[in-house]
Amino acid sequence: MKKLHVLILGVSSLGLLAGCSSNNQDAASSSSSSETSSSEVSKTSQKSVLDDKVKVSVNQAIQVYQDAYPDTDITSIELDSTLGKYYYEVEGVDDDNEYSLRVNASDKAVSQKKQEQLDNDEDNGTKRSDDKLNLNNLISVKRAANIAEKAAGSGNASEWSLDKDMDTTYWDVQVKDGSKQVEVKVNAQTGKVLEKETDD
To answer: How far apart are CA 128 and CA 91, in angstroms?
Structure first.
């Protein structure tokens, strides 16, 4: 009789331990999936911002600029937002003047068109040849954002600009994760990460 009680007690204890172990695994699994889904929600929300609010591609913004200012070369493009509205700020030059305009990133509407005369040290084609961007085979804003976010390790791309350094045209992407900000430079034709700088 005593052996039977010990055996029943032993089996009951094993069942209890198995139940606790299962609960711990469930809790750990739940915690892990919660972290994963939180990260996925963050990535999804950034992608949905690009999908929902940025309906105009960089190539379409370039075309809008070129229609407004033919026979000029583009020297800078930025994708930014004000009060939740995204726009491209496009700048360019000819031999004597500098031009800029904003292109609404959802409907191509043009605003803030400006034209200024170049300084003496920039005219006669100097700025044009120094700062002209290579616009052939540009990777998209979304692809640049994905590459930059992967290089940064965490966070979401929040600002994009197309610039040039030493004959290389690149996307300069700001990736934010809380108070941490990472600047990632991505070759605008190949997608190769050129530089990464962290600012805590």
So the answer is: 11
